[in-house]
Amino acid sequence: xxxxxxxxxxxxxxxxxxxxxxxxxxxxxxxxxxxxxxxxxxxxxxxxxxxxxxxxxxxxxxxxxxxxxxxxxxxxxxxxxxxxxxxxxxxxxxxxxxxxxxxxxxxxxxxxxxxxxxxxxxxxxxxxxxxxxxxxxxxxxxxxxxx
Length: 147
Hints:
This protein is mainly α and 147 residues long. The chain has one domain (2-123). The protein is 63% helix and 0% strand. The protein contains 6 helices and no strands.
């Protein structure tokens, strides 16, 4: 039974078969990855916030410029939070490396890479700035897709 669970997680992680629920939850494979690689609760929360935002980027209607800008604003908030948490405890991976890592994990199939590229194309020519202050959504835990 344990082997089946581990195999299922492995296939989900490698093939990108897991999907987030409609409430912008983090895919199970990514939530497990975050749990395993970021045990520090404040950093784990910030990485989870970024993962939720990246999931929204995978699902946004790229023809809806307002929706794309809204996801971009959430992304800026999540990245700012990640840097704030890193500044509080500057060991481990740099926030830029974490962002790249989560982008790769989230867009881990050809279809998802195509969607993420479309999201980035929709942002082409726009300007984003990091917001000031604490932009961390500490109350929001990593939501997993219901079984």
